[in-house]
C-alpha cells in the first residue's frame, strides 16, 4: 500500500503550484491504492471526500509547498481514520480485571493471550492468569500451557469436558484465591462466524461480565476483517481490537477499515510469532508507516528494550540526520544486530522501507559481517570521508577485509543512496512542518 501511496503523492511533492486537476489526479490514485489494499469501499469514499474538501477548501494551492500540504492532510486524515490517540486497556477498580479474547480460528487469540499477559506483566506489573476455554480445537489447552510456561505465567484449565462458562467462572475464582489481578480468557473460534460460537461467547460474556472483550483479527484477511469485526461487534459489543500478523505481507487495509467501520479502537498489534511481538497501536505512527515515511518511533521504542536510552536517542538523531558516516554506521551495526530481523527494521526506517535499491539486497547476517569487515578495514579518515576512496585505497580495503573491490563499491553505493534518501526525508519533514504553519 505505502508504495502506491508514495507514488501517487510523490508526483505532487515537487510541484510549486497545484491545480485542482493535480489534486483530483492524486486523489484518484490514492483511492485506487486504498481499494487495492483492501480498504473497505465506503471507508475509501468518505476518506477521499474529506481529504479533497480540505485540499480544495483551504489555501493549499497558494501555499509555498502545496504538495507537502496535501501529504500532510492525507497523513492527518489517515491518522484520524485509525483513531487519533492511543487506546489502553482499562483495568477494573476492583481486581481482577477480566479480559476475554474472541475471534475466528487461527486469528491469533491463544498466541495473543500469551503476548498480552506477558506485556501487561512486564509493563504494568500485573499478575496474569490465562484461562483455557477453547475446548474444541485439538491441543488448544496444551498450546496455551506451552505459551504460559514460556512466559512463566500460570494457566488454568479443566480439560475439554467442561463447558466454557464453567471453566471461565472457575478460572476467575482461582485467580481471586491465588491473588492474580488479571484474568485473560482464551476462547474458541470457528473457521467462519456461526451461531453456536456466538451463543457460546454470549453465554460466557453474560456469566462472567468481562471488563474488556477484545476482538482478535488477522490483518492478512483484508476485506474479510471488516465483516468479521462487524459481526462480532454486533453480537458481543467488543471494547477493542487487536490486529495480528501485521508483520506479514499485509496491505494494511484492515487497520484502516476495522476502526472506521466498528468505531472500536485498535489497542494492540501483533508483529510476529514470538511472544514479545506485541506493540501498543499508535494511529499516527501507523499512518506514517502506511504513507511510507517509516516508523522511527516504533523503532526507537524497540531499540529501548535492547539498547540503553542514551544510545537509542543517538540512534534516532543519526537515522534522522543526513550526516552519518561509516564510523556511525559501524557503531550501529552491533546495536542493530540486537534488535531482530534486519528486514523488519529496514522497513521502519524512513525512506528505506520501499527503496527499490534495497529490495535485492540480502540483509542477512553474512552480509552484515561482510559490511562490518569492509568498514573495519577503512581508516578513520576514510570512514568519515568516503570521497577519498580511490582505486588503490579500495583495493587495500578489499584485501584487508577478504572481499572484492566490487563489494567495496557496492557498499559505497548503497551508503550514498541511503544518505540521499535520508536527506530527502529530512527535507520532506521540514516541508511538512512549514506547510502546517501556512494554514
Ligand atoms: P487462535 O486459533 O485464534 O487461537 O490462533 P493462534 O494463537 O493459535 O495463532 C494461529 C497462528 O498465527 C499461529 O501459528 C501463530 O503463531 C500465528 N500468529 C499469531 N499472531 C501472529 C502475529 O502477530 N504474527 C505472525 N506472523 N503470526 C502470528
Ligand atoms: Mg486458540
Automatic annotation (TrEMBL):
Q: Which Pfam families match?
A: SRP54, SRP54_N, SRP_SPB
Keyword terms of this UniProt record: Cytoplasm, GTP-binding, Hydrolase, Nucleotide-binding, Ribonucleoprotein, RNA-binding, Signal recognition particle
Q: Which GO terms describe its molecular function?
A: 7S RNA binding; GTP binding; GTPase activity
PROSITE patterns with a match to the protein in the record: SRP54 (PS00300)
Q: What is its EC number?
A: 3.6.5.4
Q: Which compartments is it annotated to reside in?
A: Cytoplasm
Q: SRP54-type proteins GTP-binding domain spans which residues?
A: 265-278
Q: Name one GO cellular component term.
A: signal recognition particle
Q: What catalytic activity does the UniProt entry give for this protein?
A: GTP + H2O = GDP + phosphate + H(+)
Question: Main localization of the protein?
Answer: cytoplasm
Residues bound to GTP: 103-110, 186-190, 244-247
- Gene Ontology biological process: SRP-dependent cotranslational protein targeting to membrane
**Which domain of life does the UniProt lineage start with?**
Bacteria
Function statement: Involved in targeting and insertion of nascent membrane proteins into the cytoplasmic membrane. Binds to the hydrophobic signal sequence of the ribosome-nascent chain (RNC) as it emerges from the ribosomes. The SRP-RNC complex is then targeted to the cytoplasmic membrane where it interacts with the SRP receptor FtsY.
Which HAMAP family does this chain map to? Answer: SRP54
Domain text:
Composed of three domains: the N-terminal N domain, which is responsible for interactions with the ribosome, the central G domain, which binds GTP, and the C-terminal M domain, which binds the RNA and the signal sequence of the RNC.
Whom does it interact with, and what assembly results? Part of the signal recognition particle protein translocation system, which is composed of SRP and FtsY.
Report the family membership. Belongs to the GTP-binding SRP family. SRP54 subfamily.
> What is the name listed in the Swiss-Prot or TrEMBL entry for this protein?
Signal recognition particle protein
